[in-house]
């Protein structure tokens, strides 16, 4: 499944936070068009790793490359250009609370393109539809939306500039199972038809089994497994075993 | 009839081929090109019910923005999507077009809801009414919980009240003393310049003591407390509201009014006259220094004159206004804090609103006092 050129590349990333080595040599690659999930227990530094890849947090050592460009060597101009090529969905959406949903989605378009107003409106409508958001939500403020709606609005904003990579930080956390599966499907569809590479942090086993091409397992500061879900699930390692066993015991059969 | 080119641009070529029409796409149909593409591309003139073949042989790139424009143009031309065929497009591009078309249909069917002017006006009016209602309700709630606390003093949060007394009162002392002192200096100095012209130096005492105790000290202290403690009340309560702490307080079987509002309200009401008194003293001291240096009126002479001219009722009026100012600031601040909505931005908005509203309220109350007292001849 891995394409010819890796679009995301982490090489021997080491991170020291609060006197602890959170990452101790993390390396992996993600090819174009792949949908990859990063899993790991709480506190293993998944969100930190994501922030390092998107240029928000500097790793102590090692390199993070997007499209072959070293995020931490690039100057501000290159970095800003790079940032237009990927979209990020933060855990709580991180929508601008002073703007309506439509203005939120339009914000990157207004900043980075010179499109006339009617095209921006049309694109906003399309992004909302692609993210599965009813148009009735357009003129609402983020505070008036439910958690699932906020995630979708944030997804619509992340999609605004036709990103080549989409970073998702725990996209289904806080959603009910129905909304979570619908969100998963929306992401899978986008990945398939827009050709977007998706890299997500998740805890959600159903997301893993449902839509993910490849799983990277982070534990104790290292990548302890990397491969398709079915393969990773068979890896004989205590954390992985308990993780994949976590939802098996059903009450009353 | 053969293949005749009906229309062409650098991005497309439309030609009739046999019974159907072929729309060849060229170049990059991407977001970066969208504005030019939109301006250059006319609505294709294709007869209804004709089979349209999209030819992607010359297409370099297609993204969802380009797909949107294409779908939109076909829709504008009245072409039914079921009459569209594809050739020379990558499977992914076909899939993208299908997806965009399907979502586009939803958009068109749903329409874009836009509230009318009348609806927005009505909404504003309703907001205003609910604001008034909410303030009245808050006042009633505060009064009821005060009555409850008086009835059952055990429920009263003594510790929290003392914490607030310290924050609102004790810690405000340095800034209150300094500001009042400076204002006392300024007032005495400016009055002194005028008074010197008439040789009526001793009247500086009349002017300064009356002005400071009756008007300046209460107002200045109220403005400072509104900026310092009023904003803090709103920000504290508002942040707790955002973090669902208020809800936690309620579910623990406590009352947000008893725990948060009442201690702050009582603290600010108790502290305001005290701060006003200290502020008045600081202001008088400033005036005394200026009188000594500028007008050669010694401290003893100043104080003796003050004893003659400053009536007790002047001081009492000044001090009596202070708790009313305090109550207004406290009520406005706590109310705005509790009305913060779920997002962080509204904390900032509410805090600003508190400062502005409480200063306005203080000035209105002060004017009210002035009118009523003069009507009563006090």
Tally of strands of chain B = 5
Calculate Rg of chain A over CA atoms.
Answer: 18 Å
Q: What is the spatial order of strands in the main beta sheet of chain A?
A: 6-7-8-3-9-10
Beta-strand percent range of chain B: 5-15%
Keywords:
heterodimer, A: 253 residues, alpha/beta, 6-stranded mixed sheet, 4-stranded antiparallel sheet, globular, B: alpha/beta, 12 helices
Walk me through the structure:
The complex is a heterodimer of chains A (253) and B (378). Chain A has 253 residues and is an alpha/beta fold. Chain A is built from nine helices and ten strands. In chain A, the strands form two sheets. A six-stranded mixed beta sheet of chain A has the order 6-7-8-3-9-10, with helices on both faces. In chain A, strands 2-1-4-5 form a four-stranded antiparallel beta sheet, covered by helices on one side. Chain A is globular. Chain B has 378 residues and is α/β, with parallel strands linked by helices. Chain B is 71% helix and 10% strand. Chain B has helices at residues 34-40, 64-76, 91-110, 117-151, 158-168, 173-198, 203-242, 245-251, 256-295, 299-309, 312-338, 345-376; strands at 4-9, 12-17, 20-29, 52-62, 84-87. In chain B, a hairpin with a 2-residue loop joins strand 1 and strand 2 (12-17). In chain B, helix 2 crosses helix 3 (91-110), helix 6 (173-198) runs parallel beside helix 9 (256-295) and helix 7 (203-242) packs antiparallel against helix 9 (256-295).
């Amino acid at each position: 499944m891995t394409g010819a050129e890796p679009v995301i590349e982490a090489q021997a990333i080491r991170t020291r936070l609060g006197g602890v080595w959170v990452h101790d040599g993390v390396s992996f690659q993600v090819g174009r068009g792949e949908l990859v999930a990063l899993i790991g227990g709480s506190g293993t530094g998944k969100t930190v790793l994501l922030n390092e890849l998107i240029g928000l947090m500097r790793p102590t050592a090692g390199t993070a490359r997007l499209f072959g460009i070293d995020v931490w060597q690039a100057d501000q101009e290159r970095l800003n250009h790079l940032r237009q090529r990927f979209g990020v969905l933060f855990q709580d959406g991180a929508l601008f609370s002073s703007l309506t949903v439509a203005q939120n989605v339009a914000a990157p378009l207004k900043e980075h393109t010179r499109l006339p107003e009617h095209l921006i409106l049309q694109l906003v409508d399309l992004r909302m539809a692609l993210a599965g958001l009813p148009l009735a939500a357009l003129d609402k403020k983020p505070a008036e939306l439910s958690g699932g709606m906020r995630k979708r609005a944030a997804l619509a904003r992340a999609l605004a500039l036709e990103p080549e990579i989409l970073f998702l930080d725990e996209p289904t956390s806080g959603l009910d199972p129905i909304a979570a599966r619908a969100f998963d499907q929306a992401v899978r569809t986008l990945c398939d038809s827009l050709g977007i590479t998706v890299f997500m942090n998740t805890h959600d086993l159903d997301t893993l089994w449902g839509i993910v091409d490849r799983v990277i397992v982070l534990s104790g500061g290292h990548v302890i497994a990397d491969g398709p879900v079915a393969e990773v699930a068979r890896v004989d390692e205590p954390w992985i075993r308990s993780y994949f066993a976590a939802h098996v015991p059903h009450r009353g059969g | 009839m053969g293949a005749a080119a009906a229309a062409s641009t650098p991005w497309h070529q439309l030609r009739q081929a046999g019974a159907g029409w072929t729309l060849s796409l060229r170049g990059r149909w991407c977001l970066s090109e969208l504005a030019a593409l939109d301006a250059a591309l006319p609505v294709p003139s294709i007869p209804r019910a004709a089979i349209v073949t999209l030819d992607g042989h010359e297409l370099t790139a297609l993204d969802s923005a380009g797909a949107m424009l294409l779908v939109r143009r076909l829709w504008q031309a009245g072409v039914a999507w079921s009459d569209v065929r594809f050739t020379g497009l990558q499977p992914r591009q076909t899939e993208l077009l299908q997806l965009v078309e399907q979502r586009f249909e939803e958009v068109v069917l749903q329409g874009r809801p836009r509230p009318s002017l009348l609806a927005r006006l009505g909404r504003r009016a309703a907001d205003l009414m609910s604001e008034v209602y909410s303030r009245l309700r808050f006042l009633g709630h505060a009064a009821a919980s005060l009555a409850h606390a008086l009835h059952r003093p055990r429920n009263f949060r003594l510790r929290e009240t003392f914490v607030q007394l310290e924050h609102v009162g004790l810690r405000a002392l340095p800034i209150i003393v300094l500001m009042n002192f400076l204002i006392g200096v300024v007032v005495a100095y400016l009055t002194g310049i005028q008074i010197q012209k008439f040789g009526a130096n001793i009247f500086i005492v009349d002017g300064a003591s009356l002005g400071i105790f009756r008007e300046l000290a209460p107002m200045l202290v109220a403005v400072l407390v509104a900026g310092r403690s009023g904003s803090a009340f709103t920000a504290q309560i508002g942040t707790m509201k955002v973090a669902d702490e208020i809800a936690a307080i309620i579910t623990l079987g406590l009352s947000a009014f008893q725990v948060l509002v009442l201690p702050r309200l009582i603290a600010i009401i108790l502290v305001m006259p005290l701060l006003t008194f200290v502020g008045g003293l600081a202001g008088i001291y400033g005036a005394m220094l200026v009188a000594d240096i500028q007008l050669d009126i010694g401290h003893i002479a100043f104080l003796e004159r003050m004893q003659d001219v400053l009536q007790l009722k002047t001081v009492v009026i000044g001090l009596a206004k202070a708790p009313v100012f305090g109550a207004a600031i406290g009520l406005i601040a706590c109310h705005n804090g509790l009305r913060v909505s779920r997002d962080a931005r509204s904390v900032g908005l509410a805090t600003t609103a508190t400062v502005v509203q409480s200063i306005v309220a203080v000035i209105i109350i002060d004017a009210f006092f002035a009118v009523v007292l003069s009507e009563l001849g006090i």
